[in-house]
Write a structure and sequence with these properties.
The chain is of the alpha/beta class. The protein contains four helices and five strands. It has a single domain (about 1-115), classed as Transcription Regulator spoIIAA (2-Layer Sandwich), CATH 3.30.750.24. The chain has helices at about 30-40, 60-75, 90-95, 110-115; strands at about 1-10, 15-25, 50-60, 80-85, 105. Helix 3 links the parallel strand 4 (about 80-85) and strand 5 (about 105). The longest helix is centred in the middle third of the chain and has 16 residues, at about 60-75.
Length: about 120
């Protein structure tokens, strides 16, 4: 699994994007959790954290649990946490099967996530 974090400026806002590629499973999920926690710590006032999963090739139950956990952390912090998923990728199927599409703030593109109003 590969994780990159980068800052993106969009319109009048700035976002920190955690981009994940590869498989999220029992052996790699800790890296996702660590990257998202570090992302929250790096946010400045007015910035948003976004998780981009468009290059994920496998999402295990551990990965699903991590997404729920980081979403709950964002809610406690009163911050939005958009998650970008591409409907042609294998990541959306486990999310839909488990009903997490009603829990996670899902977007089809990074552009859509950046334009979304704060939750």
């Amino acid at each position: 699994m590969r994780i990159e974090t980068r800052r993106i400026t969009h319109a009048n806002s700035e976002a920190l994007v955690v981009m994940v590629a590869g498989e999220i499973d029992l052996h790699t999920v800790h890296r996702l959790r660590t990257a998202v926690a570090a992302g929250f710590d790096q946010l400045s006032d007015g910035q948003m954290l976004v998780i981009d999963l468009t290059e994920v090739t496998f999402l295990s139950s551990e990965g699903l649990a991590a997404l729920v956990d980081v979403t709950q952390t964002a809610q406690l912090r009163r911050e939005p946490l958009p998650v970008v998923v591409d409907h042609t990728r294998p990541v959306i199927r486990p999310i839909e099967i488990t009903g997490l599409d009603d829990v996670l703030a899902l977007f089809n593109t990074l552009e859509d996530a950046l334009q979304a109003p704060s939750q």
